[in-house]
Predict the 3D structure of the following.
Amino acid sequence: MKEFHYKSRDELYKKVAERCAQGLTRGVEKRGRASFVVPGGSTPAPVFGLLSEMSLDWHNVFVAPSDERWVDTSHAQSNEGLINRTLLVNKASKARLMPLKNEAATPELGEIDSEKSISLLERPFDITLLGMGPDGHFASLFPGSAQLSDALNPSLEKPCIGIDATGCPVAGEYTERMSLTLSAILNSRLIILLITGDEKLSVMREAKENYAPELTPISALLNQSDTRLEIHWAG
């Protein structure tokens, strides 16, 4: 695990965008296509904006969200909608999005179709970009969610899992989620964890030193040694 600290958020976003671009370019050059897993939320939006203006071979880049609220894609809280508005525009409009959301009534019922969509991405994923919440969740793997133990099992074979985040304060109003599992996320050539602010830096370091994934799920990611992990932070 490597940590990179920056003097400003603008520098952080620029360096992370460049790092992602390098990995995607390498994937296309070596295998003819590249896979890119991306988070929702407000933090990565500036990175998406920078990437969208870069001259990559976007036609051969396949993109998927790391997780999704079980809402219509036109909803303001849809990660797919965010990706379409902020990343898959400008030069990146030619990239292909593989959604997690489908027509099933619940995430649990939608797992099979979500898995079919994710299966179209080259694995290992070339770049998996993640964020982290102040409770230490990543993707939609929230502390206290009923499915957390299964989702964090590194031996779990399925890549997607329906999450019921009822009672998890950080999940907000939309508690029905679909998330990539830890085992799917670890099947990456490089994981980049993008965090901002002193609070999240403190949470990350505490999770690294004290392995308790049931309390702070990011601990499971930080304390593995199978996949390259880079942490990029600015205050």
About this structure: The chain has a mean pLDDT of 96. The first strand starts at residue 2 and ends at 6.
